[in-house]
Amino acid sequence: TMVVGVSRLFTSKVFRKKIHDILKVGIGGTLAFGGISIYFKNEKFYDSLVMPMLHKLEPETAHNVAVMAAKYNLVPEVNLKESELLESRVLNLLFKTPIGLAAGFDKNGEAVEGLFKMGFSFVEVGSVTPLPQPGNPKPRVFRLKEDLAIINRYGFNSDGHEAVYERLSQLPPPGHRKAVLGVNLGKNKNSVDHVQDFILGVKKFGPVADYLVINISSPNTPGLRNLQHREELGKLVSAVVTARDSLSGTHKPPLLLKIAPDLSDDDKKDIASVILKNENRIDGLIVSNTTVTRPLWLESAERQEVGGLSGQPLKSLATHTVTDMYRLTRGLIPIIGVGGVASGQDAYEKICAGASLVQVYTGLVYHGPLLVHRITNELEDLLRLHGFSTVTEAVGVDCKQ
């Protein structure tokens, strides 16, 4: 009964409007202890109290609570690690570490500064659609606890360009932030002109984003993945690059494509050939989105839910796709590797496979906010152990052997 009550509280509109007061007054004692534990970065506090409590909530409710916690700085503050070993320049941007937050967590740009404080060197918000849309009917997120995975079929629920732009424009401008901000662009479900949706996104968020992502790989928007095919992709890339290049002022953010892990070898070759053309030069790839495949060894009852699978079962497929794209682009196009990263070893494997940067999301759901700090420290140790003096030296090393 208590769980149902809490769930209703967290999903109500009143809660979203008044959360600050509720948190201050209603659960002050817990937060007092929580504040102390956060201050000391007490991992046991999360493992034994916070994460089990969140997992008693319905998954989407727990997600919303986590976003609100970051929004109101109820998360552990971790200073970004100053390390010559971890620092790199990618996409002509400086990254203090290679570890960032994938799109899908802060869909509407509500919690950017709180997420920066958690120790991410970059945060990607979105996907953001031109017009507000509710996404698919609930329930649309499922925890596969036994598999350390999630299936989602959100369907680009978004506050829309105007609302998200308004929030992001309150932040310091590009080049003056604590960390790097990416904006992931989507298309509206009922849009008749897919390309125009992405052009609108480039024009709207170009002035406030450090980098932009063209998301053509969510499995939950009908027809979206068709944009990965050669002819469609060529038209799209040409249009968004032109839109970016025509932005007024000197700030012209790099453009990345986010692709699926479920591509045929021919699809991968087509993508590589399109983005390597000089007139269509895309600045980077994000590899990969969720998968619509289901490994036979999944144990959770929810494994047959429709949607995109993320987390540990995606790891090897995503890493394999990183390797393929690194080889096909001859290491000329920076890759952000994402999919199943929950340890320094996972991040290290993505980097050696060809990723210059790495993103985390589902791992946070199971391991809590201190995971970022742990991955960063473990990665630094592994790079040092294997004799690298910078993380850049390790990028694609497995492809070169």
Automatic annotation (TrEMBL):
Keyword Iron: no
Keyword Transferase: no
Source organism per UniProt: Cherax quadricarinatus (Australian red claw crayfish)
Annotated protein name in UniProt: Dihydroorotate dehydrogenase (quinone), mitochondrial
Keywords: Flavoprotein, FMN, Membrane, Mitochondrion, Mitochondrion inner membrane, Oxidoreductase, Transit peptide, Transmembrane, Transmembrane helix
Family listed: Belongs to the dihydroorotate dehydrogenase family. Type 2 subfamily.
Location(s), subcellular: Mitochondrion inner membrane
Reaction(s) catalysed (UniProt annotation): (S)-dihydroorotate + a quinone = orotate + a quinol
Cofactor: how and how many bound: Binds 1 FMN per subunit.
Uppermost EC category: oxidoreductase
Pfam families, alphabetized: DHO_dh (PF01180)
SUPFAM superfamilies: FMN-linked oxidoreductases
GO MF term list: dihydroorotate dehydrogenase (quinone) activity
Gene Ontology CC terms: mitochondrial inner membrane
Enzyme Commission code: 1.3.5.2
One GO biological process term: pyrimidine ribonucleotide biosynthetic process
Annotated metabolic or biological route of this protein: Pyrimidine metabolism; UMP biosynthesis via de novo pathway; orotate from (S)-dihydroorotate (quinone route): step 1/1
Cofactors required: FMN
Predominant subcellular localization, coarse grouping: mitochondrion
